[in-house]
Amino acid sequence: MTDGAAVPTQGPVTRSSVVRVGAATVVSAICGYAVLYLAARDLEPAGFSVFAVFWGAFGLFAGAANGLLQESTREVRQARALVRVPEPRSSPMRVAAVVGVLSAVAIAGTSPLWSWHVFTESQALSVALLAAGVAGFCVHATLLGMLAGVDRWSQYGSLIVGDAAMRVTVATTTFLIGWGLVGYLWATVAGAIAWLLLLLASPSSRAAARLATPGTTAVFLRGASHSIAAAGASAILIMGFPVLLKATSADLGAAGGVVILAVTLTRAPLLVPLTAMQGNLIAHFVDQRDRRLKSLVVPVAALAVLGGAAVLVAGLLGPWLLRTAFGPDYQLGGALLAWFTAAAVMIAVLTLTGAATVAAALHRAYAVGWISATLASTLLLLAPWTLETRTVVALLCGPLAGIAVHLIALARVPAPSGYLDRH
To answer: Rounded to 5 degrees, what are φ and ψ at 89?
Structure first.
């Protein structure tokens, strides 16, 4: 690498790195729950539905930007063994800045075509915050990838916590001063400048940010474009699901607010950690690239155990927790909450197989898998069933298509013969 000071001498992903990122993820999850709790308590279900759609819209674009995290992690991780990065080379952080600005311009420029349907209140502010937040998050995600690539897990965790802490700080202030919906919109994007604060405070993070990767900018973007497309499709099913639900429903209303909150709460214990640990996962799968399918066994088994426990808790305690924490307006049966949790397990498995696929540089298969899952879920949401039934079936069955694509791709491609393999 070009900056030896930024690259620790340790080898594969260690248990301590997982613990450090795991701890940061717990804090991030608590902060995320706190924002949702404050918004749900402060806003009636219909108002929470409006907030949740903006939260989901930002999550959709931020999730797509995580493609930059995945590609920068893979490129830096594979190049770390080199004494010097060969020419030509590219700077992922500079690429991310350009992508962020172009994304903001695209969002603002196209907003007259869609904002009136997606944002029913505070339209202009919502578009402005969304554009600025996405621009910042492109750099945020890329810095996370660079840090993961060189095993800077403490800084990686600090960036995750910083993002979450800034969100919950603005949300708490909003709750206390009665700022209302507008305050929660600001809270949603508040963490998009956390990367700048980390760079100002951490010399090792600045060193990691200066690293270059082999190949031209076009080569980096070609790989990143597939990751971004797949990450965008995954974001539709995860963070952007409220937007998808609204797009396939005539009117969400209060019932939609309850369903969105329930889906968000039941999936967060599994998907928030997996999303936060994308760097760990991709680094692990890169290190295990000669055992692509076998390296999935332990993570999937652990997920099955945790997921089974989560389904049980959701079914038995979920209705009481929902009603007690958020008030009598938020009520759903235990069976439905258990099904929502089971659906979250399926999306979590798809997230694992996707991380293994992108680590193997199978960019097209990675994208096709997530896009297939999203299309399948969208079609199922159009079925003539109740809102609750459509939601369960779409989130439970749609991911199966993507999992199949990923596993077939991993099984067909032989172990890499060199680090610059591209597929």
So the answer is: -140, 165
Residue type, 259: V
Alpha carbon dihedral 369, 374, 376, 379, in 10-degree steps, equals -160
Closest CA to 111 of 98, 96, 130, 97: 130
Q: Are 103 and 61 in contact (CB under 8 A)?
A: yes
Residues 6+ apart with CB under 8 A from 345: 270, 303, 304, 307, 310, 311
Give the span between the Cα atoms of 290 and 419, in whole angstroms. Answer: 12
Q: Could you give the percent of the chain with pLDDT greater than 90? A: 46
> Residue 417 domain-assigned?
no
Between CA 261 and CA 248 the distance in angstroms is 17
348 in a structural domain: yes
Residue 65 sits in which domain range? Answer: 4-412
Distance from C-alpha of 360 to C-alpha of 223, rounded to nearest angstrom: 12
pLDDT in tens, 120-142: 888 999 999 999 999 999 999 99
pLDDT band per the 50, 70, 90 thresholds, residue 420: very low
Q: What pLDDT score does 15 carry?
A: 64
Cα(258)–Cα(269) distance, integer angstroms: 18
CA-CA-CA-CA torsion sign (230, 233, 237, 241) = positive
Q: Which residue has the tokens 């974001």?
A: 235
Count up the domains in the chain and report the number: 1
**Residues paired with 214 in a beta bridge:** 89
The secondary structure of residue 294, as a DSSP letter, is G
In a domain, 152, yes or no: yes
Q: How far is CA 355 from CA 361, 376, 394, in A?
A: 10, 20, 22
Length in residues, the chain: 423
Q: Which two tokens stand for residue 265?
A: 């709460």
The answer to whether position 420 is within a domain reads no
Sequence-ordered list of residues with C-beta below 8 angstroms from that of 75, at least 6 positions apart, any chain: 92, 149, 213, 214, 215, 220, 223
- Quick one: pLDDT at residue 422? 42
